[in-house]
Structure to design on (191 residues):
């Protein structure tokens, strides 16, 4: 950038020197051509030439100052544009970073939610399995108890039936014996 500024300044200086010296050359040639005719007016021409040079220098200085102001203005505009571009790039980068962080946070939340759901489903499955096993064990215990009760009732009924049969047999035997004894006694009495 410094080299560019130097080139611009040198270009302005060359133009300024051209503005100064070219009119002076034309003035010098014109003065030589009309020297005889204008000899009485030589002091006046010299005065005009000397008075014209400060005006040219003033204009040159004004042009140089104007060019400097334009360059300074362009630099300010360029710096401002660069600052705006940098600021926009920084804002864009921050937005992208924020969006990236939000996406990562969202993905992490979704993953955590999925893991929680999977864990809850597994826990519910385990609880249902344990409940089914407990229910099956309870049903088996109930069936076993019912079978034992039925077997016990059967055995009790069989024992009761056997006792009744034995009692009936004993009673029948006792009646037969008593009848035989009575018959024998009757026969003995008749004899």
């Amino acid at each position: 950038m410094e080299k560019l500024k130097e080139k611009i300044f040198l270009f302005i200086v060359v133009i300024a020197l051209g503005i100064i010296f070219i009119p002076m050359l034309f003035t010098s040639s014109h003065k030589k051509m009309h020297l005889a005719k204008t000899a009485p007016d030589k002091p006046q021409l010299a005065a005009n030439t000397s008075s014209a040079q400060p005006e040219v220098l003033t204009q040159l200085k004004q042009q140089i100052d104007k060019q400097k102001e334009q360059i300074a203005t362009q630099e300010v505009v360029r710096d401002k544009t660069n600052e705006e571009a940098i600021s926009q790039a920084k804002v864009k980068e921050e937005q992208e970073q924020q969006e990236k962080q939000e996406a990562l946070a969202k993905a992490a939340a979704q993953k955590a939610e999925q893991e929680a759901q999977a864990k809850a489903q597994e826990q519910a499955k385990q609880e249902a399995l344990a409940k089914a096993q407990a229910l099956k064990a309870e049903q088996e215990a109930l069936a076993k108890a019912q079978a034992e009760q039925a077997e016990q009732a059967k055995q009790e009924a069989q024992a009761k039936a056997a006792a009744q049969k034995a009692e009936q047999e004993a009673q029948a035997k006792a009646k037969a014996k008593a009848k035989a004894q009575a018959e024998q006694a009757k026969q003995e009495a008749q004899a």
